[in-house]
Amino acid sequence: MRPASAFPVQGKLILEPALLEDWPPMLNSRNRQQTLAGLAFVSPWLVGLALLFAYPFVASLAWSFCRYDLLSAPSFVGLEHYQRLAREIVQGDHFGQALWNTAYYALLSVPLSIMVAMGLAIMLSWNIRGQAFFRTLFFLPSVVPLVAAAILWMWLLDPRDGPLHQLLMLAGLPRQLWFQGAQEAAHPATFMQFGSKDALVLMSLWGVGNFMIIYLAALGDIPRSLHESAELDGAGSLSRFRHITLPMLTPIIFFNLVLGLIQSVQEFTRIYLVSEGTGEPVGSTLLLSLHLFLAAFQDLEMGYASAMAWILFVVLALSTYLLFRSSRHWVHYQEQLR
Amino acid sequence: MNEYRKPLLVGLGIILLTMMIHARLRSTRNDRVPTDREEVVFWHFWGGADRQVVETVVERFNASQQQFFVRAIAMPGNNLDVKLFLAVTGSDPPDLINQDDPIIADWAYRGILTPLDELASPQEMKQLQPWLLPAAQRLGSYQGRLYALCNGLDIRALYYNASLVEEKLGVDSLPRELPNLARLDEIAHLCTELDDQGQPLRMGYLPDSRRLWAWGVVFGGRFYDTENQQVTVDTPPIIAALDWMTSYRRRYGADTIQAFRQGDQSLPGKIFPLLANRYAMIMDGQWRYRDIAAAQALERAAGKPVTRYGVWPLPKPAGATSSADGWVNGNFFLVPRGANNSQGAWAFMKFWSGFAGHESEAAETCRQGGWIPASQQVIKQPVFQQFLSAEPLFARFVELATSDQVPTPLVPGAAMFQRTVNQAAEKGMSLASPPSSTHLLQQADREIQQHLDRIHSHRATRRQER
Hints:
Chain A is mainly alpha-helical and 338 residues long. In chain A, 65% of the residues lie in helices and 4% in strands. In chain A, strands 1-2 form a two-stranded antiparallel sheet. Chain A is globular, with a radius of gyration of 25 Å. Chain B has two domains: 36-154 and 328-407, 3-Layer(aba) Sandwich (D-Maltodextrin-Binding Protein, domain 2), CATH 3.40.190.10; 156-326 and 410-458, D-Maltodextrin-Binding Protein, domain 2. In chain B, 51% of the residues lie in helices and 14% in strands.
């Protein structure tokens, strides 16, 4: 029998059939001891997983059908919270507004983060003087604490005295309200008038250093022979980027897309800091995570918050599933090229 | 198994070492409880210079005691509610907390607070009611029962730059109070200075959307009808108050005032914007007198002319029949249900607030902290009277504390109540073309009423199930 093996290929774990042939394994005395010792070592994690993740996960589903303030026993209300959430979506209030804000933020910040991180990585992969210095420079913002970064951005985007405002004035461009405005630059009614959500999107780009590092690693992984062959065939740099670099980066783009989507929907700290936990101005920074937090811990509506969390979970799971389905058409793994 | 023995032993050794270091550090802390005393765990929200005052009060109390020992834990920031909530639900609450958020009614309603009549003797309760200022009584009561002991009132009034206003009006002195709201508008517009592009360099006055609570009651409104359990946010006086506030937005433009407001946040060291000459008048609380005194001291030291400041009570609209003079909130002590040492907590509350013979200690505490006492008996103390003579701006706030000051409604769901009213006012003030004040407040009224009804119906369901 061939020895069982598993090896990662560009983000995919390939399991050989031999791996499954011996399952379940017959445990001899030594194996049993090893298994027990292994379980003992991972038991803190297993207990943590069961108590801090699995139990709340299941319990929150039950609570989403109850009125519950954590202080008295939950009382069953059926689908009341889900009906209320549906009503709020239709009316565009509270949950509806939070859903729109989150969608707006995610749809802008995720693609922008991917593009900026990839663009930076490509430029930083060029063999230029001071390459290491620039790589460090562009990565540094990712290690700046979020609180410090939030304060810095609030100053940068001050619509009256901030440096960006001064630059806009010099260029003869109109004043932007950033964190003080409820406008949406991507909305046809307020096109190019930047408000608080746009400021949050800009702020999210501050942390693209992590993604950038992954792109840099992936760029280094692209076989030079591919570029050399294409060059011999007369391909220009743009053509090589389009037909070699970009396809070879698609597994990483896909990875960052899924991760970025989840992160953007769960975004909390930045919003809490810039709006002082209120979702202001005019509810324009009330993203789902903040709305959920306020409902649970300020209004003590755990049932309603749980229902919201489940809707959030379903939306995320569905989006991730759709992304995985679509990935068959646009993500190219190296082994497929062999 | 032998191969695992070594890493297991190393792991256990690290855990033991950590525990020993932690125990050693604990034993060297200066707040360790003497063996002959009962510990009182006290959570509070004070930070910065105020925290030092709190620590001094705790030290003075501990020095005066044979029975109790207070261990103060500072939790500055705005998450004390959440931490307390989790501690209560986890059955490990502190013995006492000091808080300033409108949580009393909510928590009393849910049965998490110990009413004061369960801590104090009947004799003490009889003395306590008249001992407190009316505003302090209102702040601590829910459904006619005292759940909190106020230890400091927060009063809002109009600070004004006297030097500037006198210059703009061309007068040598200013009255002690403004005759009406129209006069405030007049002075505000006179003191506003715009640049060539129409952007304000200084605003005479700019209503803050979070202060509809104050203007609403000054216009004669009440946000909640306790008797009929009805939200009354959309009543004519409150609509009129919001209309008046939004008149500033209509005059100067939403974007302009939003941008100007943001500038307040960017001032170095978050300086009081009145001192940065960004406003001629601004509504704020009594604690700002210290900033003004410090700025005047700096001017004096630099040999510059000293800018004079004053305090006006909130003016009422001409012909208003309202008796309310303003909006009050404050700091108060709460004892959570399940506290281990509620009697120790009660002893400390009395010491700090000044009740039951501790008036002179409380006067000293309020002098150090610049806090408005909850009782006239403390205000009367010689040490506090001397302080008032030395600080005339602060003294004006103490005067106002004895007038008719209305708190945020004491109802369950107060956090949502407050948030929703603030959001309605914010929309009125910051949207370029917002819905009418009536529409905004009607919507807020409806939402709050639904929220309160949900809370009440939950209670009714629980009762039926029992």
